[in-house]
Amino acid sequence: MMLTPMMLLRLIVICFGRVRMILWRSSDPSTDPDLEDIDLGVARYVPVSLEVLMKSTKFSRKEIQLIYCGFKQDCPTGVVSADKFRELYSQFFPLGDATVFARQIFQMMDQDMDGSVSFEEFLVVMSMLSRGSIDEKLQWVFNLYDLNGEGFLTVDSMIEIGASIYEMLGKYTDPPVHEATVREHVTRIFIKMDSNADGIVTFSEFKEFCVNDDKIRHNFCVFNSVL
Predict the structure, then answer these.
(1) Which in 113, 119, 120, 183 has the greatest CB count within 10 A?
(2) What's the CA gap between 27 and 122, in Å, rounded?
(3) 227 near 66, Cβ under 8 Å?
(4) What span, in angstroms and rounded, lies between the C-alpha atoms of 210 and 193?
(5) Residue 70: half-sphere exposure toward Cβ, Cα within 13 Å
(6) Cα–Cα dist 145/8, whole Å
């Protein structure tokens, strides 16, 4: 199994399957809740107004209310802690260890770095992943690989992300993937991305590699309807 930018996006989105399931239900009027009765307040955290969320995301009022219903099921306090985030990922990958990968994604979502992910932070990322442009999605994945915020990727930073993914997948990988194999896979992709062979990958090089790959480009478009 080869690590790709699309593999990252799929893993990020999969743990929020409950949200997607709730939105699918909305196509059946008989299952729609009374949206005007949905209370956006929680005991310890109150999200900003629906109007503000509609302006900061690409979701409609109804979609935001339905997404919040799913969010509250897993996060009744209105925020997600790092431990809860790891727990959510672990539910989908019980044969591996999701600790490192979940922490990396959590840190990307926790924009104000207060140690928790609010509904607003969650919603903005989900809007970008499902409704954002290819450039926005690519930039987000690029930033995930760029662990130190240096504005470029190194083979070591990509290997670190790759290792955390394979560690999370655990026994799902067939055949089992060893550390040397991860390094080999990631190094092979890195060399293809590094078009000028200067030892670093800029966002321009990362983007060029992704948009010129028909499969990756097609899959980014598929994510437009992930919710």
Answers:
(1) 119
(2) 23
(3) no
(4) 9
(5) 21
(6) 10
Q: Hey, what amino acid is at 217?
A: R
Q: Tokens in use for 25? A: 């239900």
Q: Kindly report the number of other CB atoms within 10 A of residue 78's CB atom.
A: 20
Is the distance from CB of 161 to CB of 153 less than 8 angstroms? no
What are 31-83's pLDDT values in tens digits?
A: 444 434 445 444 456 677 889 999 999 999 999 988 888 888 878 888 889 99
DSSP H or E stretch at residue 147: none
- 151 alpha carbon, distance to own chain's centre: 19
Range from 9-23, 82-96, 102-116 carrying the lowest mean pLDDT: 9-23
**165 is written with which tokens?**
């993914």
Rounded-to-integer distance, Cα 29 and Cα 182, Å: 47
The H or E element containing residue 187 is helix 179-193
